[in-house]
C-alpha cells in the first residue's frame, strides 16, 4: 500500500475538504507564505488562494476568536495554533466562548471549527514548545478532542473533524509529522470521532494509549510477547468524549489495565480512564491499574533532562510485568 | 429632517429598553430573577441608533450589559423576559440568562459574560461576510473598561489589516465596574486608540440618538463599501450600579441624579421632537402605553412559562 508521511496525510485531508466545501478555510501564523513550520500546509495557498489559506497577525486570541465568529456566520474554519502550548494565550476564547456558545444559547448556534494543535516533545524545544495538554480540554464540556497516532488516522480524523458541527481540538504530535504510514490512495478516509480502536488484540493486559505513545505501546507489546504475555492495545484516537465502552470491554477480557501517554502523569487523561475503570469495572480487575506518563516538571531543555522527563517503553513493560 | 416613522422607531426602541430595564430592576430586587443583572438605563440612545442602521443579516456582539442591544436588534420582549426568568420559553431555553442572551434569528449573536469577549468574535463574523462577498457587517458593543483588554487591540489590528466590515462601538459610561475609567485608562478618549490601528476614531454624544445615528450610519456605509472598520466612541453615563444590588459606595446619589436629570437621552429626544413639532405629546403617550402593555404581557408570559425540565441538562452540549 502507498506510504506517506503524517504531515502529507494532514495536507491531503485539508486539500480534500477544501475542495469539497468552499466554506472550509484555514488561518494561522506562518501557514501560507511559509507553508507551516512542519511543511504541513505546503502548496495550499497556490491551490486555494491567500484568502482561504490565511496568514494572520501574531494574535492567538484574535485567531481563535475570529474562527469562532466565522463559524457562527456559517463558515468552517480550521485555526492553526503553531504550537499547542500557545493555546494558553487564547484560553478564554477556547473555554469560555467556543466550548460554551452552543449550550448557553440553548442550541441556537453551531460552532463547526477545528483547532490544530501541534504538541509533544521534539528536539529540545523545551518548556513552552513541547507540552502535551490534551487533559485540560477533557475537563471542559462542549469541546471534542482527538489525537491521531499514525498517518491514516491523521487524515481520517482531520477530515472527520472538519465535517463535524462541533468545535474540535486536533492534537498532532510534532515528532509524528515526518513519520510514514500506510494510507490508501483514491479512497475516502473518515475516522469516526468518539470511537477508540483495538489496534492489537490480546488477552493478558490492556494498554490504552494514543498519539505518539502508541509506538511505545507496540514496542512494549513486542517485548512482552517474547515472554509469552499477550497485550491488547487500544488506540484512544478521541480523547473527549472518551469511548468508555471499548475500554471497559477490553478490561473485562484482560483483567488488567495500563494507560500510557506522553503528557504529565498527574491529572492526565490516564487519571480519568483509571477512575472510569475503578468506578465501572473494578470487579474486572485482577491487579492495580498502572499509569505511565511524563514526570511532573516543566519540559526541560537539556537532552539528558528531556530524556529523563520522557515516559518510556521500559516503564510500560515493567508496569505490566508487576501486574502479572 | 427625519421622517416620522424613524422618529417613532427611535422612541419605541428607547422606551422599550427603559421600561424593560426598570421592570427587571424591580423583579431582580424582589428576587424573582436569578443571577447577575446589569442594566442599560441612561445608555438607550446608543444601541437604538446603531441598530437602526442594521438589518437582521448584520451581526452584533453584545456585553454583560446587553438587554438594550438585544431589544434594539429586534428581539421579542416576551422571550427575553422568559430567558431572564430562567424559563424554558426563553431565547436560550433558560440556559443563558441575562449575561448570555442571544437571538440568532435577528443577528444578535450573544451577550458575553466575559468583559471584552466579543471583539474577536465580531471580527470573525465580519471576516466570514467578507469571504462570502456580501455587504453584511458586524458590530461589537463594549465599554470603556473593556477597551483595556488585550482582545480589543488584537481585534482592532486584525480588522484594520484585513479591512473587515466591523464597527467597534465603545459605550463610554465612565465606569469600569466600580472604578472611574480615567483612573485605569491611559487616554480620556477611547477613540484616540484608533490612531494606533490606522482606522477612523469618531466621538459622539451617546445620549443624543440623532448624533449617534448619523455617525453610525457613516461607519456602517463605509464598512458595507468594503473600506474597513471604524471605532465609534459614544460618551454616556451609567445611571444604575454595575449590577442590580450594587451598593455604589464609589459615587454619590446626588452625582447620579444630576447626571440623569440633565442628560436623560429619552427626555432629550422628547424635548427635541416636541419643540420641532415633529411629534406630539399624544404620539409619545401612545407609544409609551403600547410598550407598557407589551411589558405586562412579557411578564405574564415569563411568569406563566415552565422552567426547563432536568432532561434539558444534557441537551445542546453537542450537535
UniProtKB/TrEMBL annotation, chain A:
GO molecular function, one term: oxidoreductase activity
Keyword Chaperone carried by entry: no
InterPro entries: THDP-binding, Transketo_C/PFOR_II, Transketolase-like_Pyr-bd, Transketolase_C
Domain Transketolase-like pyrimidine-binding residues, every copy: 4-179
Entry cofactors: thiamine diphosphate
Pfam families the record matches: Transket_pyr (PF02779), Transketolase_C (PF02780)
CDD domains on file: TPP_PYR_E1-PDHc-beta_like
Keyword set includes Cell membrane: no
Protein origin, superkingdom: Bacteria
UniProt keywords, alphabetically: Oxidoreductase, Pyruvate, Thiamine pyrophosphate
Entry protein name: Pyruvate dehydrogenase E1 component beta subunit
Species assigned in the record: Natronincola peptidivorans
TrEMBL record, chain B:
Keywords for this protein: Oxidoreductase, Pyruvate, Thiamine pyrophosphate
Sequence ranges assigned to domain Dehydrogenase E1 component in this UniProt record: 13-310
Source superkingdom: Bacteria
Cofactor(s) required for function per UniProt: thiamine diphosphate
Recorded GO MF terms: pyruvate dehydrogenase (acetyl-transferring) activity
InterPro entries named in the record: DH_E1, PDH_E1_Alpha_Subunit, THDP-binding
Gene Ontology biological process: pyruvate decarboxylation to acetyl-CoA
Pfam families the record matches: E1_dh
Matches recorded under PANTHER family: PYRUVATE DEHYDROGENASE E1 COMPONENT SUBUNIT ALPHA, PYRUVATE DEHYDROGENASE E1 COMPONENT, ALPHA SUBUNIT BACTERIAL AND ORGANELLAR
Name under which the protein is recorded: Pyruvate dehydrogenase E1 component alpha subunit
Amino acid at each position: 500500500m502507498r506510504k506517506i508521511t503524517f504531515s502529507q496525510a494532514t495536507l491531503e485531508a485539508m486539500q480534500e475538504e477544501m475542495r469539497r466545501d468552499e466554506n472550509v478555510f484555514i488561518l494561522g501564523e506562518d501557514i501560507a507564505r511559509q507553508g507551516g513550520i512542519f511543511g504541513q500546509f505546503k502548496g495550499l495557498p497556490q491551490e486555494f488562494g491567500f484568502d482561504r489559506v490565511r496568514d494572520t497577525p501574531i494574535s492567538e486570541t484574535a485567531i481563535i476568536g475570529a474562527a469562532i465568529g466565522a463559524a457562527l456566520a456559517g463558515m468552517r474554519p480550521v485555526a492553526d495554533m503553531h504550537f499547542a502550548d500557545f493555546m494558553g494565550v487564547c484560553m478564554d476564547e477556547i473555554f469560555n466562548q467556543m466550548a460554551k456558545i452552543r449550550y448557553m444559547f440553548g442550541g441556537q448556534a453551531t460552532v463547526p471549527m477545528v483547532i490544530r494543535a501541534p504538541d509533544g516533545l521534539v528536539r529540545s524545544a523545551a518548556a513552552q514548545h513541547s507540552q502535551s495538554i490534551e487533559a485540560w480540554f477533557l475537563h471542559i464540556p462542549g469541546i471534542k478532542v482527538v489525537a491521531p497516532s499514525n498517518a491514516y488516522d491523521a487524515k481520517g480524523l482531520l477530515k472527520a473533524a472538519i465535517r463535524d458541527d462541533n468545535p474540535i481540538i486536533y492534537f498532532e504530535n510534532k515528532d509524528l509529522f515526518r513519520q510514514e504510514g500506510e494510507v490508501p490512495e483514491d479512497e475516502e478516509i473518515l475516522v469516526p470521532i468518539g470511537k477508540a480502536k483495538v489496534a492489537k488484540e490480546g488477552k493478558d493486559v490492556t494498554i490504552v494509549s494514543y498519539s505518539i505513545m502508541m509506538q511505545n505501546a507496540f514496542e512494549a507489546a513486542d517485548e512482552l510477547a517474547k515472554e509469552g504475555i499477550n497485550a491488547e492495545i487500544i488506540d484512544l484516537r478521541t480523547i473527549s468524549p472518551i469511548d468508555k465502552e471499548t475500554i471497559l470491554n477490553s478490561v473485562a477480557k484482560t483483567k488488567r489495565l495500563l494507560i500510557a501517554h506522553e503528557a504529565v502523569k498527574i491529572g492526565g487523561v490516564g487519571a480519568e480512564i483509571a477512575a472510569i475503570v475503578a468506578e465501572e469495572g473494578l470487579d474486572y480487575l485482577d491487579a492495580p491499574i498502572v499509569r505511565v506518563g511524563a514526570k511532573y516538571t516543566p519540559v526541560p531543555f537539556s537532552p539528558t533532562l528531556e530524556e529523563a522527563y520522557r515516559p518510556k517503553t521500559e516503564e510500560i513493560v515493567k508496569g505490566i510485568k508487576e501486574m502479572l | 429632517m427625519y421622517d416620522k416613522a424613524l422618529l417613532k422607531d427611535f422612541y419605541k426602541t428607547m422606551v422599550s429598553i427603559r421600561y424593560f430595564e426598570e421592570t427587571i430592576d424591580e423583579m431582580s430586587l424582589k428576587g424573582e430573577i436569578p443571577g447577575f443583572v446589569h442594566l442599560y438605563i441612561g445608555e438607550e440612545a446608543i444601541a437604538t441608533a446603531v441598530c437602526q442602521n442594521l438589518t437582521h443579516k448584520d451581526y452584533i456582539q453584545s456585553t454583560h450589559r446587553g438587554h438594550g442591544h438585544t431589544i434594539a436588534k429586534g428581539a421579542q420582549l416576551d422571550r427575553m423576559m422568559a430567558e431572564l426568568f430562567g424559563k424554558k420559553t426563553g431565547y436560550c431555553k433558560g440556559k443563558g440568562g441575562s449575561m448570555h442572551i442571544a437571538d440568532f434569528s435577528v443577528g444578535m449573536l450573544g451577550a458575553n459574560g466575559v468583559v471584552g469577549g466579543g471583539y474577536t468574535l465580531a471580527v470573525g463574523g465580519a471576516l466570514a461576510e467578507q469571504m462570502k462577498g456580501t455587504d453584511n457587517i458586524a458590530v461589537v458593543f463594549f465599554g470603556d473598561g473593556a477597551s483595556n483588554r488585550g482582545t480589543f487591540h488584537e481585534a482592532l489590528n486584525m480588522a484594520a489589516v484585513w479591512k473587515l466590515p466591523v464597527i467597534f462601538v465603545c459605550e463610554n459610561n465612565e465606569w469600569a465596574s466600580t472604578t472611574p475609567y480615567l483612573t485605569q485608562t491611559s487616554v480620556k478618549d477611547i477613540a484616540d486608540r484608533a490612531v494606533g490601528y490606522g482606522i477612523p476614531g469618531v466621538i459622539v454624544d451617546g445620549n443624543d440618538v440623532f448624533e449617534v445615528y448619523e455617525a453610525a450610519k457613516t461607519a456602517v456605509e463605509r464598512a458595507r463599501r468594503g473600506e474597513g472598520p471604524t471605532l465609534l466612541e459614544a460618551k454616556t453615563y451609567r445611571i444604575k450600579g454595575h449590577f442590580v444590588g450594587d451598593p455604589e459606595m464609589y459615587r454619590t446619589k446626588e452625582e447620579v441624579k444630576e447626571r440623569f436629570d440633565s442628560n436623560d437621552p429619552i427626555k432629550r429626544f422628547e424635548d427635541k421632537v416636541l419643540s420641532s413639532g415633529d411629534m406630539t405629546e399624544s404620539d409619545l403617550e401612545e407609544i409609551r402605553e403600547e410598550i407598557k402593555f407589551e411589558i405586562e404581557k412579557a411578564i405574564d408570559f415569563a411568569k406563566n412559562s415552565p422552567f426547563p425540565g432536568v432532561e434539558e441538562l444534557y441537551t445542546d452540549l453537542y450537535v
